[in-house]
Specification:
130 residues; electron transfer activity; Cytochrome Bc1 Complex, Chain D, domain 2; two-stranded antiparallel sheet; heme; 8% strand; Cyt_c-like_dom; globular; 4 strands; alpha+beta
Length: 130
């Protein structure tokens, strides 16, 4: 619970939205339904450290869609015992992925880095619970 609170307080939730809601759908089960993907599904400038020089449509090399974090805790078991995170799998741990956040997320990444080690561990434990 503390990790989830810190996740929100630090600002991670500004892009990794906990809850989204669908709009109208003629399929009743899909209409106005809340779900918890931990994403806003939007493009964000992640800074020069993640710029791979490739463009996709109008997105520049440093712009990436916020990936859903749901299922993050299953990543290690589903990836052969290793974790491959970020858009290209270059981060080998949740902590490393957080450290790679730059651009629009630089101030949030800095807040995470300034947290006491125990608070950082709480956030990571929360993320592993998703």
């Amino acid at each position: 619970m503390r990790g989830q609170q810190l996740f929100v307080q630090t600002g991670c939730e500004s892009c990794h939205k906990q809850t989204l809601k669908t709009g109208y759908s003629p399929v009743a089960a899909l209409a106005n339904t809340e779900f918890h993907p931990y994403t806003d599904l939007l493009l964000h400038n992640m800074g020069p450290g993640l710029d791979d020089g490739y463009t996709e449509g109008s997105a520049g090399g440093a712009e990436w869609r916020t990936p859903p974090l749901w299922g993050l805790g299953l990543a290690q078991n589903s990836q052969g015992g290793q974790v491959y995170l970020m858009h290209d799998g270059r981060a080998r741990s949740i902590r490393e992925a957080i450290r790679m956040h730059g651009g629009e997320a630089a101030s949030i990444q800095k807040r995470f880095e300034e947290m006491p080690a125990a608070s950082q561990a709480d956030v990571i434990a929360f993320l592993k619970s998703l």
